[in-house]
Amino acid sequence: MKNVHTIFRALLFCTLALAFVSATQAQSNHTWVTGAGGDDGGPCSRTSPCSTFSGAYSKTATNGEINCLTPGGYGAVTITKSITINCHDVFGGASHSSSQGVLINFDSFSGTDTTKSVRLRNISYQGVDTGTRAIRILGGANSAGSKVSVENCVIDGNFGTPGRGIEDTRSGGGSLLVTNTTIRNLGGTAISHASPNGSARIDIALDNVRIFNCLYGVAVRDGGNMVITNSVIASCESAGLYAEAILAASTLHANNVALNNNGIGIQQASSGANIRIGNSDITNSTTNGTSGTVNSYGNNRVAGNAGTTTLTPVGPDSHDKGQQ
Fold first, then answer.
1. Considering the entire predicted model, what is its pTM?
2. DSSP 3-state of 317
3. Could you report the per-residue pLDDT of 282-316, keeping only the tens digit for each?
4. Structural domain boundaries of the chain?
């Protein structure tokens, strides 16, 4: 009888070990999705692709990549490990009516995932006018050193509460890069940073971003350090650029940015929020061209604004010829 128990325990151990190996092997460095007959029950290989991002995500190893084989709507996904989702050369979308499209929760990343990097490329996020957020990024102490890249994307149709495009509320630090991306038709802010306690610095770089028809264009607060270049922000009801400091200082630096037909072109909402602009346009603001202290490098263009537009020279020099 003792030998029978020993054999049984050995068989049970082998079964569990094989199950663990099988689960590990089920995750691939490269998976695919398709809008034409994909199956989330399969391996998500190129020849047997999945049908949703969430299905492929569960089959993709840490630091792996999900690609789109055909056009399609691949649904929402929650991310808790370093990964790339890339629909290059294919119209890949994430429809998220009445919900968020992508949730990145760095608090749920494994301690062995030292990269802490998420890359979202060539994806169309469609909120169908009821979406809440296209991309939501959060995390406490575990977000230190975390990195998020959003490249070549389109975000549209978020009028559900809070109606944001990209929302970053990390309190433990990290960085965000948004390039060549269009964000439009939102009830809230297109790109929003607001740490809940302002304890750590978040570095945000925006380049070639086009924002249209929202409440605020970009907003930074409490520990945020934002740079925006080569971008257009138009028809935002409250403000195009917005900076605030409640719990910690924030910085917003803008260069070669066109701000047109916004409620307020640039708004400093409180002291401790440092705004600097250069080589930019503030035109046709419906309330004020600027509000609060906005520092200028002296080569901006200002025209057609209602209310007031006051720019403070960064240095001692001032300029004529309409440059301020």
1. 0.89
2. coil
3. 999 999 999 999 999 989 999 999 999 999 998 76
4. 58-313
